[in-house]
Amino acid sequence: MTIIQVLRRGIFLLGFVLSISGPLFAQSRQTLRGVVVDKESKYPLPGAAVVVTGQHGLGEICREDGSFTIRQVPAGRYTVNVKFIGYRDAVLHNVVVDAGRETVLLVELEEQASVLDEVVIRHVTRSGEPGNEMAFISSRRFSVEETSRYAGSRGEPARMASNFAGVQGADDSRNDIIIRGNSPSGVLWRLEGISIPNPNHFAIPGTSGGPVGIINSKYLANSDFFTGAFPAEFGNSIAGVFDLKLRNGNSKKHEFVGQFGFLGTEAMAEGPLSKKKGSSYLASFRYANLWLFNRLGIDIGTQAVPSYTDGFFRLNFPVKNGGSLALWGVGGTSDINLLISGQEVKDRNIFGQNDRDQYYTARMGAAGLTYSQPLSRSAFFRATLGLTGNLQDASHDYLFIRKDAQGLPLVENDRYVLDGKAQILRYVFNESKVAASASLNRKLGGKSILKAGINLDLIRFRSDDSTRFFIDHAQSVLGGWQTRWDSDRSHVLFQPYAQWKYLLTHRLTTHLGVSGLFSSMNKASRSFPEPRAGISYDLTGRQKIALSSGLHSQMMPSYLYFYQPDQEKKEPLNSDIGLTKSWHHGAAYSWMAGRNLKFLAEIYHQSLFNVPVSSSPSSSFSILNTGSGFSRQFPDKLENTGIGRNYGAEVTLERFFSAGYYFLITGSVFDSKYRAGDGKWRNTDFNGHYAFNALFSREFRTGTRSVFNVGAKFTTIGGRRYGPVDEEKSRLLQEIVYQDAGRNTLQFAPYRRLDVKMEYKLNRSGLTHTVAVDLVNVPGVKNQLSLSYAPQPDGSFIKQEYQLGFLPVFFYRIDF
């Protein structure tokens, strides 16, 4: 489908929307309300002043419970200023007011430094600053409203985060978060304070990404994203943390959303359960329609049609003294059948293997009960009890392709001629967890904050994996079934932590923390103490410098502990492997160069040790290269003798949305190396050396009720690493096998992509229409993805796979 065809269909849809929208009378208005609380204790702040800039007379003083309600706000984007004596001012950029739904804000104010020698030291909390009070560097707030403007992000939190400095996202088929050259499996996903399994459809064991995300940004509150040296409360991670938080439904008014688009048909509803008590509900559901776009000829990377469904709910019940009790759940299911036997030789298939039919099912779910309670003006308690689970179920049928007299694959009518097929793989992995977290924030006077807590997980892993290997490839003779996983094991993971933040002077702030990790998996999976420390200094001219350092550790993915290729042995091959550890060091400089312009520069060094690597003195295998793609790992005996190092520099220049436009420019240069059992220093799989993103968004008012937004993003990233192909072994095993000695000595061409996003929004009384199209990879650049095994009639078998070309991602949404 050409760009012109996409635009024509978009114009037709836009015309339909306008035709049902009715006449435009006066400017649409809506209610802006929320609550203002202390950042640490969550205690309400009555008397705080909330003002909508640029709108004379729109503002309010918070009531006794910290709430405010500003009615009759014209639809549009605004900056909201919040002031309260003794606290830092808060400036909230890009607050969107739509006619179809109320805008509800949670504003957390940070207690201000004292008055010294009659000089008031003023600080302002702005958009982009993390909500976690213990974060000093390598962190930023993930604002759903801001990141939704990123072209090419498909509305997914993981793809949105790939635009931040230090993060790579150079794979169109997956949304893995690769931070500073680390494996994506080193990223910790948290939801409401507990760790959750890979929140993506079609997830593979040991990974943290996938083709389509399960988490929908529509029900997220502002969250935090960390790329290094994170606070003590985050354990079992060496790369980064995505700390997601959920929002409550509207407790005053019932609201609904319907959306149809490339990624699915969605419905969401929210509203009060009891207006008197302030309880609320929020629920959403999404169903994939990729079958429709496959029929329209839109390239999604495979002729197979993925099927997926996901949903979410949250029930919130206020309790006495400003507390709340919330019951929530999120989950998804996905299925795909990659039937190579039904495809033509020329068909693209970037998600599967070219010699077999694959049947795959994945499930993921998390549910919890979260209790939060301000204990006083200086203390806040929060606890979550949850259940999580994930399952992968796969089956592979090998295809026996008929050969001609020269031994080459026989093709008729553009299809391989088959002599039959046989099942060669079957596995089911199922991991479930009972998770609990509890934390206490305590303000010790006006200059000190203490946060302490625990994270506790009871994990059960069940697996059943069997495969068949060829006894004679030439004669296509398969051997008997061999079991590689057959386990039902449980283990406990306990992580206590404490962190203290202290204001040494009105400009100098420090924090000290300690964390621990204790697992019953084995005696080597314990680490205490893990110190964390940082210091920041406020310079004149709205500038700040900060230093931070910390020790972090992480377990391997559960399935790797239970790999047992020899079932005669009593214990799995790697059940005794200890933790990977990493020292993070970083320095940051930030400058508010203008009222809405921020510059940030960081340098960092990461030293990894105790890394699981192969015990073979000739092997280049390291756990640091795992966690991306659609393949599991089958390692030999491992030992904690590997090391690695990552270092680099990052810059961010961001203009917060005002005067109708916004931009974000991020760049990073880095080096990521590792040393495995063979003693040689090599590039990691993710050492692209550089990443650059430039985003721009401009909004035009096209009437009293309508706006048109156009944005663009350009990305370029150093290509992925690979090595020379071992042709003899590849022919024998009928899959691409790389020469171990030459691992990561070669590199694909740089990844380049230009995306354009257009959005039209029309407000009428109590109703908002939105039509948007994301034109991904507008020039249609053929970015390299991988090499695959694909026997050709000419005798060759190495096929270059390319990433997605031009892809139109669009949706129509109605809010009412």
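^ that was protein a. below is b, sequence first then the tokens
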Amino acid sequence: MRRILVTIAIATAIPFAAWGHGPPPSLDFYGHFGGAAARCQQVIGLGGRTCLERVLAAQEHCLDTENAGSACDLTARDAAIDAAKQKARTMIATACDATAVQILGFLGVDEAQRDVANSCESESDATLSVMFGAGGSSASIGTPASVPPCTREGTRKARLLLRRASQLRQRALDVIAKSSLGPEAKRGRMARVDARLAELRALLTQQLEATCGSDFATYFGKTVGTYLDLIEKRANCLTAAGYVQGAVTCPPPSCGNGAKEAGEECDDGNSIDDDACHNNCTKSSCNFFPSTFQLIQAAVFESKGCTNNACHGSAQVGGLDLRRGASYAALVDVPSLGSVHKRVEPGDKDNSQLFRKLAAATLGNIPDLEGSPMPSGGLPPLTQNELEAVRLWIYSGAPETGVVRGVADLLDACAPPPDPIQIRPPAPPAPGEGVQLRMPKLPLKPTSETEVCQASYYDFTDQVPPEARSTYGTFRFKSRIETQDPLSHHLIIHIYLGSADTNDPSWGAWTCKGGPHDGESCDPKNLSFCGSEGVCGSAAKVAAACFGFGPDDLQLPGKAPAFGGSQEPLANNYFAPGVYEELPLKGIIVWNSHAFNLNQKPGKVEAWVNFEFAQPQEQLYPIQGGILDPDNKIFIMNVPPYERRRYCYQFTFDQGATLFEISSHMHRHGKLFQIYDPRGELLYTSTQYNDPVHLKFDPPLLLGNADAATRTYRYCAEYDNGKGNPAEVKRKSTSPKAPNGIPVGGPCAVAVACTDGLVGSACRGIGQLARDRSCDTSSGANDGRCDACPVVGGLTTEDEMFLFLGTYYCDPAFRDTCHEFQRAMAGS
């Protein structure tokens, strides 16, 4: 009986020899091979697994080296891969002869060797593309501690599943190969393996979701389930290469699934066609960089000569080493010699000495520049695009890994799809010197924009020393440093002074946002329950300017004054000497976050506020100012499509106001904001709506003249609705709706100009179809579209604002003319 079964196996297997020659036979006809063939089969499987693990290790080591900023030794990598493949070939040649491999379904020993060796390298490539993306932009074994725990855990779990899936399936097939099991028993054994792997995947899914939460897709570009499924398929493909049977098969290549398979040059799993990997799974011809910092390193530090031996190479001028592998650690969060600034302050270009010195060479006129512009020694300055690339990198938190939107385009390079960058949380002030507030985490869906309000509770009673307290239950501080993730247009922070307590139902359900108890119900006054990485937050509500959020009295004058906020990742609010601000020792904070995620991956926004206590001698003048909007001109603009318009107004400060900082606020169509002093001289210019200039006056400007004209500042803003770049015209089809209760903004009721066909022409006709046809280049062309809208005032990023921001205090000699802010918390 055994001999008959062996004969059947041989007769069936050889016509379908090897997995590349046709459909493999059913499991019913696999097995009963006898001792020599069964031993050969076991070694083929072991050789494939051994080869894959060694090739994977060599390729990962190369990626880790590049991610650390050093060049990979490609010769050593290729030698390690060749050695791993040769090891598999030798194992097969030692254990197998021509008869054994033909019984197993191969035409000869050389084919078995070739299939296994080729498969172990191709499946390593595919596995790496799933784990690290098309360009290997994530980090793996041996990477710095800065690599997010989710990334480390995800790659570790992938290696575990890859190893266990190939081991379990191959061992089951090894047993079948040497036994006399019937068809039902064979299928039962394989079903038990499937069940064990299903349990393993469920466990890995649970563990990854516990570690990563919603951040998994941010780091890996796919859900946990899809990720593990792609990894398991790589194990199946390795098994299918060495075991000619139909129970474990390799799926055909599929361009776009995120795994680089046979016949594909790359596969990044996204629909973006102008990145490093085209949508047909061929590589782009442009220079590819897996992270923005690696691109900055090559395109700025190295190409501009900053790393030559006489500069910031071996000479390390000023103690700064900008060579590959050393530059990041030497720059970010490191004090600059001879300067009050850090070399790079993540999120704040104005306090980053690197940017200041680079900008001085490119733009000139950098106030109070310490040292000389860079590059020096006759080297050419950065171009405007190169300087803007550095600015965007710093603005986005100066990440070591990950991709910042827009930088690759500025530097004519290719990079993976942009990441929702997260800024590094600031350390809280030392005990006795200050305190920290933390905003509940706000998740953001891919390609979304929202304005959300939520509340949290704080109690600093036991952290504030007596000298920083007032007699009416507040603490006083001399600086406020606000840090937030870069996916934010603005953050406004309110202190709630109404009558509702945290148990008022108007706040909705309180749950942990982040931390080990994420999503669980919590008592906001139990400040330790959610853990150090979580915050107990109220129900979040989409609400522009918090209209309709929380208790009814929240919108009443003086019941929820704004005391802070920012429109950039890092806002350093150091008050003028003697100026202080104050908050209750405990209370409810309302966080109003306008956030947008332009990326294809989920993101989040968190924020932190550090307060530095004011000592008694520093508690002289309460802070004044903020938004300076006389006559409510915030929504003054109305810019037709493909036009650029300028709007101006003026603001008169009270006599005795002592001005120490001015800034501005616009949205994305805002291209220029200027402020003129009372003499009419240009004082302030800002061209970045999402990173406006903050101009500080040291010493502060006392506006003490009785003549109002000497205290009047003129401010102007220019808005471009597609004149400079027609692609940036406001479109009805892509404009977010205006929030409820806001009478302006949002998409226009009827588009007024053509965006396709006769671009810029006025639309005609009644109904969308007729208006589209009025944009056609010729009758019957059907190539026109009427979609362009005017830019008007509003709250979304497609609408606009016109705000002069100023911070001052009132000189005590002018109490009768400088109207101090009457704080409700002071009982005034």
